Amino acid sequence: MTLNHARLAEFGGTAALLAVVVGSGIMGERLAQGNVAIALLANSLATGAGLYVLITLLGPVSGAHFNPVVTGVMWWRGEQSGREFLAYVIAQIAGAVLGVWLTHVMFDMSVFQVGIKERTGLGQWVSEGVATAGLLATILLGLRANARAIPALVGCYITAAYWFTASTSFANPAVTIARSLTATFAGIRPTDAPGFVVAQFAAALLVIGVLRGETRPARIP
């Protein structure tokens, strides 16, 4: 596959991921009639299922990163050039923003919004670090143990991380940026987004340090 194919897969896959995350949050909140636990359950299950489908279908095309910290780790492992890294990250952020805007259109909402949900403080930042480190460890150790299980492993991990982290596991800078552009259930205030992104990249550096001996190929077969 060419870089253009891979970039398109990262763009479309990340857009679809954000449509799943934000759309299921909106639908869950509307149908739960004020029960936040039910809304979060719907949100987490839809996200895990969506990840399984997207990674299975697009893994052979681009590696199905949909996440700048994942791409950064793969670049560090020598699986991508600096040019590919930059192209992936741009595609991921652009796709994530488009996915949020598309979801607003689907639900007859104002396209351009600003997040209003407060997500800040030590607990939130530590949660994002834990969530991101766990995601990267799942991917790297999963590639060594059973690469074909990656879609299920990532989908299950994120579903679980929605519930065991206080932040509901963004674990993705592109997702964080895009979710600052929605005032819905899945949103985050723009002023809180930088703290999440810093925690996510700090977790990536920690995982790189701990798993620096991991050298298996990063592409999903």
Topology:
Layout: H1 3-32, H2 36-62, H3 68-76, H4 82-106, H5 122-146, H6 150-164, H7 173-179, H8 193-210
Helix pairs in contact: 1-2, 1-4, 2-6, 3-4, 3-8, 4-7, 5-6, 5-8
Features:
disordered C terminus, 221 residues, globular
What does this structure look like?
The chain has 8 helices and no strands. It is mostly helical.
Overall structural class, as computed from helix and strand content, comes to mainly alpha
Q: Mind describing the biggest β-sheet? A: none
What's the alpha carbon Rg, rounded to whole Å? 16 Å
List SSEs in N-to-C order: HHHHHHHH
Mean pLDDT: 95
Query: Roughly what fraction of the amino acids lie in strands?
Result: under 5%
Net shape = globular
Relative helix content: over 70%
C-alpha end-to-end distance:
13 Å
Give the beta-strand count: 0
Low-confidence stretches: 215-221
Please report the number of helical segments.
8
Give a brief description.
This protein is mainly alpha-helical and 221 residues long.
